[in-house]
Amino acid sequence: MTKIGYARVSTIEQDFEIQRQRLQSEGCVIVRAEKVSGASREGRTELATIIEFLREGDELVVTRLDRLGRDTRDVLNIVHECEQRGAFVTILDPHVSTRGELGHVIVTVLGMVAQMERRFIKERQREGIARAKAAGSYKGGKARLDYALVQRLKGQGLGASAIAKVANCSRMQVYRILTASVEKNAPDVDC
What we know:
Blueprint: E1 3-9, H1 17-25, E2 30-35, H2 45-53, E3 59-62, H3 65-68, H4 72-84, E4 88-91, E5 96-97, H5 101-134, H6 147-155, H7 160-167, H8 171-185
Domain Resolvase/invertase-type recombinase catalytic: 2-136
Protein name: Resolvase
Pfam family, one: HTH_7
């Protein structure tokens, strides 16, 4: 049986070191981490890698359920995929494991709470933007990635992995920036 930790933060500015330390102190021999939104499973390559390599009796450990996901269906699908491999999911805060039936019920309820919390966050964000626009002080969100840097590195012949390392982002984000750039610069053709 192997304990495998998964740490996740949503933005480049956030740090997952506290999660990593907690997972290691709980006995996780492997800890994978990524900086990507928990709103869906899209682009969460580290999580996919963990699930792919889970074996019978292994345990996927996260510090909080919202690190696993903020959508109830996604969380339940992740738990199901782990169980299909004979593995368990353990959440440290509050301590819940899918080893028993009660754990499944608690994970489902916590998943619903995480999804509801995400909706509240989005609603407060929309209200704040509307107030700022009404006051004439809304300037839009700041760019989280340096698109020009990604383009410049690509122009220098670097591959997506190398660009991601320099720009401190995921390869998926590099691909999105490069794809958007190609689509933006494509000539309009009338048929």
